[in-house]
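Researcher: Final request for today, and then I'll write up notes for the group meeting. The sequence and the SMILES for magnesium ion follow.
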Amino acid sequence: MAELRLDNVIKEFGEVRVIHGVDLKVQDGEFVVVVGPSGCGKSTLLRMVAGLEEVSGGEIHIDERMVNRVEPKDRDIAIVFQNYALYPHMSVRQNMAYGLKIRKFPKQEIEQRVNDAADLLQLGEYLDRRPNQLSGGQRQRVAMGRAIVREPSIFLFDEPLSNLDAKLRVQMRVEIRQLQRRLGTTSLYVTHDQVEAMTMADRLVVMNAGVAEQIGTPLEIYERPASIFVAGFIGSPSMNFVEGRIAADRQSVVIGQDFSIPLPQVTDAIQADQPVTVGLRPEDLHLTQESPDEASLPLTVDLVEVLGADTLLHGQVPHLDTLIIARLSGVPQVKNGEVVHLAFRPRRLHLFDRDSGKSLYYGQNAA
Amino acid sequence: MVENNRWVKFSSHLILLLGIAAVVFPIYIMVIATTHTGPALQRPPFPLLPGDQFFENMKLVLGEGLSTAGAPPVALMMFNSMVMALGITIGKIAISLLSAYAIVYFRFPFRMFFFWLIFITLMLPVEVRILPTYGVASSLNLLNSYVGLTLPLIASATATFLFRQFFLTIPDELLEAARMDGASPMRFFWDVVLPLSRTNIAALFVILFIYGWNQYLWPLLVTTDERYYTIVMGIQRMLNVSDTVPVWNAIMTTAMLGMIPPVIVVLLMQRLFVKGLVETEK
Ligand SMILES: Nc1ncnc2c1ncn2[C@@H]1O[C@H](COP(=O)(O)OP(=O)(O)OP(=O)(O)O)[C@@H](O)[C@H]1O
Ligand SMILES: [Mg+2]
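Model: Predicted protein-magnesium ion complex:
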C-alpha cells in the first residue's frame, strides 16, 4: 500500500521534451487512469514511475521516499505490459514465480503465492503450460498474476487490454477492477480507450502532448471538461463544436447567423463580444417540434446510424459550417434528407475561449 | 504449375536418383574399401561388394596406427580432433554469446567501434592471418598443445554477429519485465537470453563443430609432435608416403571413422532444430 506523488515531472529525449511537467497525486489504494491520444507520453510517464526511464526533471515520490534514482527492482512496483512480456520458455508457474525466486523467497511461500494467484485468476489448470499455449485473455491473466504474486505496493498497467477483442476487453476490465479493489493496491493505468478510462477510473488524468490537461473523477471530466481537448476527447461520439460570439449584453451567445442561446447565468469569465467555441454533447440534443417558444436548431439529416438502443443523426445546420451529431435514444423515424428540429437545455452548454481552448463556462455549475 | 504427368514424374525422380548416386557412390566405395585387404584394393577390378576384413582393418588403425606413414593410432587422433573441434565450438559459442550480449544490452564507450572492429575481423579468416598467428602462438609457447590447436581459432566474428542479430529480435519488454522482477544482467542472460537462444546455439554448434573438425592447415602448422596430430592431418600423412604404396584399406577405414563424429553431431542437433522450429516461441 502506498501513495504515489509526481512533482512537476519532466522527460526529455535528447533535445525533445515529451513530458512538460506533470503533477499528480495517487492516494493509497486509488485506481488512477491516464488517458490520451497516441504519442502524448502516457507510456513514458508510466515508465518513469517504474524506473525503466530516467526522469529528466521533477521528482517522483512513493510514500515519503524520493525514487528518482532508485532501481526498478527496489521500488516495490509491478508492471503489466501491453504485450504481456511473458518469458516464452517458462511455464505459467515459472513465469509467476520468477520474481519471487530471484528475491530468494522460500520455496513453500512461492508455491503458496503462485497457487493463490492462480486461484484468484482462474489459472489453476494452466500452470504447467507455456505462454504460447494460452489464449490472449489467459496470457493477460498470467501477466496480472506475475504482478500480484509479488504483492507490490503499486501496480502499473500499460494498455494491458489493447490486444484483446472487444468482448474480452469488457470482461477483463471488470476483472482487473474487482481484483484491484480486493487487493487495495494503488494503481496507475494507461489507456487510449476513453470507455475503459471512464469505467475503470477512480480518477482520470487526461493527457495531451505531454501535459496533464485535466485531473478529476470521470464524471467531473465529462461534465466540466477544462478545455476543448478534454471535451472532445472524452465522450463518444465526441462533443459538437461550433464557433460563436458572446452577445453585447453578455446574456446570450450567438452562433451561426443570428441564432441566440440564452445563458442561464452570467459569469465574469466572459466578456461582451468575446469570440468563443460553443460545445454541445450529442446526447444533450433531443428532437422537438418547431415552435417560437423554444430555441431549436434545424438539422438537415445526412446519415442515420441505428445502434439499437440509440440512434445517431449526422447532419448540417444552416449557417454552421460544421457537421453536427445528435444521439437520440430509441429509434426515431427519421429519414436521410429530412429536416428535424433539435433542442437542448442551455444548462448543458459549454463555452471555450477560442484562442486558448480553456473552458470559460459550463451551464452545469450555473444552475 | 507442377504438371502431373507420368513422364515429368519419372524424369524428375531420375534426376534426383542420379544426384543421390553421385553423392553416395564415393561413400559406398569408401565403406567397401574398409572391408578388404590392402592388396585386394590395389588389384583391378576394384571390388564392389563387401569383403571380410572389416574387423582386421579396424584393429589395425585404432590400435597400432601406421608407423610406416608416421601416423599415430586413430583412437588418439580422433581424441585430438574431438578436443580441438569441441574446444573451438564451445569456446566460440561462449565468447560470441557474451560479446554479443555486451554489445546489445550494455551502453559503454566505443560500443559501436568495438562492434565494427569485431565485424571487420570477418574479413580475416585463419588462412589470411596464419603467419602472424603462428608467430604469436609460438612466442606464447602454444605449439604442440591443445590450447595452441584451439585458442587462435576461437575468436569469431560470424557467431558474434549472428547472436547480435538474434538478441536484437528479443523484445525489450522481456528485459524490462526481468528488471522489474529484480534480475541482474547476468541473471537475465542466464535465465532468459540463453534459453531463448537454444536453437541458434544448436545451429552454430553443428556448423562450428564441422568447421573445427575439418581444420587442416592450422593443426599442420602448430603440431610437430605426433601426440597432437588430428585425424584430418593423419589421413593426409598416410597418403603422402614415399617409397611404398599407400595402404588404402587403412586410409579408408580412418576416413570412415573420421566421418562419424560430425554425422553424430548433425543427427543429434537436427532433432533439437526441428523441435525448436515446431514449437514456435514468441
Ligand atoms: N526512446 C525514445 N526516444 C525518443 N523519443 C521517444 C522515445 N520514446 C518515446 N518517445 C517519444 O515520446 C512521445 C511519447 O511517447 P509514448 O510512448 O509515451 O506515447 P504514448 O502516449 O504511450 O502513445 P501510445 O498510446 O501510442 O502508446 C512520442 O512522441 C515518442 O515519439
Ligand atoms: Mg504507449
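Model: The first helix of chain A runs from residue 42 to 50. Residues 237-366 of chain A form a domain with the OB fold (Dihydrolipoamide Acetyltransferase, E2P) fold (CATH 2.40.50.140).
Researcher: Thanks, that's everything.
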